[in-house]
Amino acid sequence: MNRKQAGIILTLLALIVCAGILAARVNGQVDDGTGSSLTSLPFTKDNGDKTASNTKDYFYESRNTREQQDAQTMQNLKSIIEDKNTSANQKTDAQKELTALTMARDYETRIELSVKGKGFEDALCLIEGPKARVIVKSKDSLNEKQSIQIQESVASVSKIKDVVIEAKQ
């Protein structure tokens, strides 16, 4: 093993450790060093107010539902493409639809990250053909500057100009 291979192995090891730390933070578990893990409760107040928790659940559930539907659609399209009894035209159409779905999913993720980078706590993007719907977590209604920022994010990532923006608490 030469130095280059050792450097690659160490880099990969460091990335694995970083991914583990990130996964622990995302899942809300924090190791306090004594072997027990502390779990943080998401957005619940001591007075039992669960409005913020419900909003978090809304974004989580919507994203989860979207991913499940996309996975099912992708699986169906792949089975059409791989089926020997499918005509060439159907395979071509399925391949185009699979490519469009994959691109839309990538755009949605990139738009969500871009909107979160603009200072919003959470965002959900749904691309529906030539339209994009962006739902952001915001206590107040959005001002014109924020709406323009979101529209610019969508246009820069996906070239979609027809954007519907909703604010959800």
Automatic annotation (TrEMBL):
Record keyword Signal present: yes
Signal peptide: 1-23
Positions of region (Disordered): 35-55
Name assigned to this protein: SpoIIIAH-like family protein
Keywords noted in UniProt: Signal
Taxonomic path: Bacteria, Bacillati, Bacillota, Clostridia, Eubacteriales
Any Pfam family matching the protein: SpoIIIAH
Signal found in the keyword field: yes
Alphabetical list of Gene3D superfamilies matching this protein: Stage III sporulation protein AH-like
Native species: Clostridium yunnanense
